[in-house]
Design goal:
5 domains, Beta-Lactamase, 703 residues, alpha+beta, seven-stranded mixed β-sheet
Length: 703
Amino acid sequence: MRACWSFPLHSPGGRVLGTLAFYHPAPRLPGATLTSEIGYFADLVALLAERHLREQENAARHARSQRELAAMAAASERERRLYETVLSNTPDLVYVFDLEHRFTYANAVLLQMWGRTREESLGKTCLELGYPDWHAAMHGREIEQVKATKAPIRGEVPFHGTFGRRIYDYIFVPILNPQGEVEAVAGTTRDVTERKRFEEELRDSEQRFRTITNAMPQMVWTALPDGTIDYHNEQFYDFVGLEPGAAEGRTWAEDMLHPDDQAGAGTAWAHSVATGTPYEMTYRLRHRSGDYRWILARGLPLRNEAGAVIKWLGTDTDIHEKKLVEEALQDANHRKDEFLAMLAHELRNPLAPIRTGLDILRIRSGDAQATQRATDIMERQLRQMVRLVDDLLDVSRINTGKFAIKMGRVELKAVVNDALEVVRSYIELHGHELVLDLPDRPVFLHGDATRLAQILSNLLNNAAKYTNRGGRVTLAGRVEEKTLVLEVSDTGIGIAPEMLDSVFEMFVQVDSTLERTNAGLGVGLSLARKLVELHGGTITARSEGLGSGSCFTVRLPIVVEPELPTKPTPAAFISTETYRILLADDNVDFVNSIGALLTAMGHSVVITHNGPDALAAAARFCPDYAFLDIGLPQMSGYDLARGIRKLSCGAMTALIAVTGWGQEKDRQLAFEAGFDHHMVKPVRFEQIEEILGNRSIIKKLRT
């Protein structure tokens, strides 16, 4: 071949389909006619080639489509088998309704419940499958509702099938086409018979539990595993005064607890919930009255077989009275320990001066003055010890009902004077100002003079004790109708509000920081209250708080209401007159020094050292006052007093017994002998001044 002619093949659309070649054995070029003919032939070949190519492509596409359809069919079959397997093995009933309420699908469990085959069931309505009329009508309405609303609907219904009478929970949902229209209604139904039975049993159990807890005296509560309270019994709501259910749904009822207890109780509960450990706590819960009461709260976790907490069961027990008793016992025990320490201290204090006095007597037995000083010291300290013991014995006798008081007609000023005799030295020792504001007219009480004086002396001593040096102690009195009101006030350290209710308790001290030398035993106020109550009166304490002083008010019934002055004036103990005074005492130094002071004040003084000389002086001198020692040589002070009373001028003489003995029997002996007043050694000159300045206080009234 020596020549080749090639022509391109184009489809009508311009697509290149290939080439058409002509070959010749000798070199040659085609002419115009041949070229035209060959071009026509090439167009014809192009048409045939395009048709063949299109047929090949169509065949390939068809084969591919067949393969895809086969794969889709296989996948669909697998999916159908999968769904059918799942739906046939689920315990739930699965089904589909068409828009005419006919079943178009029912899984194996539903067919089994009906006792029918698929062919016997599909295409039929509920009524045609034997459902009761009301049941079929109900489902018909529900299908129409789903069609109209395109929303699911749920219900619960009993049904009697091949499984017997069971309770079923069901849901109907719409099946939508691509246009969003309902084309069918699908449903699932679950057998809830056992669940309903369990719920019913649980309700019965819950009701029994609540009945039992409501019959209990304790408050009972339960909580969820997270600590949320879900139940309180009736006793709790009765206690707090809330409507039933008001305290549920919360993890902690903080607003019902005392503010001081909220943090601790809440933290403990949170810890128990977090760790699953039992809960126990005491706190104050607000009572319906508004007061807080002590509660013992306990909670135990209830666990399942796996050990997880499924519930909390707890109780609240009112332990308020028990708590108060425990606190009172603790307080009493604490006060007892303080009292024993104080008692040991108070008893040791007088022992040191007594021991010193004994040393003086041993070393300087020949020195009369030193001996007298030592004797005075020991007598004074002995009286202090006796006073401590007497106070304790008095309290013991009152508490055991063995305390006796000697009631009689008593004048107020005599009582006041006796009380001042006991406490004046203590008040002056501390540099206090003593202010007296008493009625001028006589006020009479029905009581025991000694015990009434003891009340005032205890209150005055207490006021002086708790007032800083240089303070003021006031004793004021007034008559209100048929009641005597006595007030002992001071400018001292005051009383804290929480202490006002306990200051009259045994062994209670307002300020435990006082030096032990000043603290005392803490029985004075308690004894004063008991003595006031034995006289039919009352005693109260008030104070504006620490640093504001305090005031103790005693109210006692009076025998005769005296005519009150328009304005009471303070009693003055400064003598403005001069008197004739007889002193009789065998203590030469003492009586001479007192006599010298009285003489310097302008009084006429006669001094004697034995009974007969004193009686002779009284007959000759006719004294206004006679201070007589009970232990005089040759004649006792009692006999001397009786002798003076027999003198013509002795009836108007004020007789004052001076003795080292201050018991009630000693006072009684003195009064029976005719004395107007009783003074216990050592006697201070200020006490004598008081008597001289207020003759009315010691002037004995004879009826």
